[in-house]
Write a structure and sequence with these properties.
- The chain is an alpha/beta fold and about 375 residues long.
- It has helices at about 5-10, 35-50, 65-80, 95-105, 125-140, 150-160, 190-195, 215-225, 240-250, 270-275, 285-290, 295-300, 330-340, 350-360, 365-380; strands at about 20-25, 50-55, 85-90, 110-115, 145, 165-170, 200-205, 230-235, 260, 280, 305-310, 325.
- β5, α6 (about 150-160) and β6 form a beta-alpha-beta unit.
- α8 (about 215-225) packs parallel to α13 (about 330-340) and α12 (about 295-300) packs across α14 (about 350-360).
- The radius of gyration is 21 Å and the shape is globular.
- About 45% of the residues are buried.
Length: about 375
């Protein structure tokens, strides 16, 4: 998972040192996306390490991509022109942030590109080539490329000709807000009513886009409620396909047992996890998902929750801590049903997962590691 054995402290004895620098945080995606959350958590952890953070807020919700570009390119570019940052960290160097990055690079600002997915896998071959040609000049002049696993790092190095000295594995971490055993519970009347009724709450969190696998989750819900009528599903997350998924649930007759909460605040998310009995995650086996690093599985485990998920890509690395299914929809659904109906299935592995994540994947530690690396490179240049 990109984390040194024995966690970070052993390998970074100076990890408690504070650094002073001004860092601009830039995200190409809206605030309902996982990319923005990773940007937020990196910035927060760098602030704890002593950095001054200049936030460039993206849109709260995604518009049409063409509209996003038209509206964000001039705003991001203007911020780049007037910025006094020493470092810019840009998550996903997609077209709407490229101009801002080039402006900052021309000003001599250290540029760090956080490439946390294979975004070319989500578009057609011609669009992928255009995207690569746009990204390549920015990558060529970047001081540092960060990504969250070795497999993706190798792929990016081959695609863009990135030298190993400019690559840094920055693991997918967990914000300390998920380490509280008594988090703030959101004022959600629907969920609270189900709690009072003694329902078993399933939780699924995702950015509601083409990669969210909502169809599989709804099928699993159907099979689970057929065996246990007290099962309910809580879906947390916004996105361009949210309304479509709400309509699908209604057409399948699941509206009364499935609550779509939409986009919620970052500080409300731990509360939703806290009240869940079982948390769900599913990846289809495709090129995009094989190099992903799930933020949600780490957050679920950080709060000691039982997690049902399959084995695609990095999910398999957590097999000792989760209730793992096969990769078919039926396998996933059957694993969930067994966990809900057979008390002997639970063996306490979620507690081991909680301890592992809190000890080794804390963004506070990961941010301190990054801050020290940025400080070292600033002195070299």
């Amino acid at each position: 998972m990109g984390v040194p054995r024995g966690c970070l402290k052993r390998h970074f004895p100076g990890i408690e040192r504070r650094v002073e620098m001004k860092v601009m945080m830039l995200s190409s995606l809206s605030r309902e996306s996982g990319g923005w959350l990773r940007t937020l958590y990196i910035g927060e952890s760098l602030a704890l390490a002593g950095a001054e953070i200049e936030w460039v807020q993206p849109f709260p919700r995604a518009l049409l991509k063409s509209v996003d570009c038209l509206l964000t390119v001039p705003r991001y570019s203007l911020r780049a022109l007037v910025s006094s940052a020493q470092v810019v960290i840009a998550n996903k160097p997609l077209p709407n942030v490229l101009a801002a990055i080039k402006i900052l690079q021309a000003k001599g600002v250290m540029s760090v590109l956080d490439m946390d997915d294979d975004d070319t896998a989500m578009v057609g071959p011609w669009a992928a080539r255009i995207l690569e040609s746009c990204i390549s000049p920015v990558v060529r002049h970047a001081t540092l490329i960060t990504t969250h696993n070795a497999r993706l790092a190798e792929m990016l190095a081959l695609r863009y000709g990135i030298e190993s000295t400019r690559l840094l594995i920055l693991p997918q971490g967990v914000s300390p807000r998920f380490f509280s055993d008594c988090p703030h519970i959101p004022d959600d009347p629907g969920v609270q009513q189900w709690q009072r009724q003694g329902c078993k709450l399933l939780l699924f969190m995702a950015h509601m886009n083409a990669a969210s696998e909502m169809d599989v989750i709804l099928t699993a819900l159907e099979q689970a409620v057929a065996r246990d009528a007290t099962v309910r599903l809580v879906v947390v997350g916004g996105g361009v396909r949210l309304d479509e998924y709400i309509l699908k649930a209604r057409r399948r007759g699941l509206e009364s047992i499935c609550r779509f909460c939409g986009q919620v605040t970052v500080d409300d998310v731990p509360g939703y996890i806290h009240v869940a009995n079982v948390c769900l995650l599913y990846y289809h086996d495709n090129r995009y998902n094989r190099v992903r690093e799930s933020m949600k599985i780490r957050e679920y485990l950080a709060m000691g929750k039982a997690v049902v998920c399959n084995a695609v890509g990095n999910l398999d690395a957590f097999r000792s801590y989760i209730y793992q299914s096969g990769n078919t929809t039926d396998d996933f659904s059957c694993t969930l049903v067994r966990l809900l109906t057979d008390a002997s299935v639970r063996d306490g592995r979620e507690t081991l997962g909680r301890n592992y994540v809190r000890q080794c994947l804390d963004w506070t530690r990961l941010g301190q590691m990054l801050a020290l690396e940025l400080s070292r490179r600033m002195k070299v240049t």
